[in-house]
Amino acid sequence: MTANPSVKLQSGLVANGALYYSWNWGSCISQSDMGKLAPDGTGLARIASDGVYANRSMARRLVLQAADLDILVIRASATSFNAWPAGELIGTLEDDGDRLAHVDANGVGTIAR
What we know:
By secondary structure, this protein is mainly beta. It is built from no helices and nine strands. The protein has strands at 8-15, 18-25, 30-39, 44-48, 53-55, 61-67, 70-76, 88-95, 100-103.
């Protein structure tokens, strides 16, 4: 597998014994996704979220931030890994062990496009 130079890690945090992260890719329309790496007894299991946030402006990306027991999903203009000005809170990251989902204030488990 070769590295894709257009894929950029945006944020990362450790919570509940796992590494949660967000990344973006794309050249014309920036797209963001969220993932998790967690020990599974024999190595690391990787889980990606069930939705992708597409952004035509390429300026605002999804970033993750810890807040008490929640992982917040924020739309922000990330300047580098784990560095972004205040952004717009768009929900929380729900982790049921086998899948990740963005959950908005209405309880909807998808990412608004």
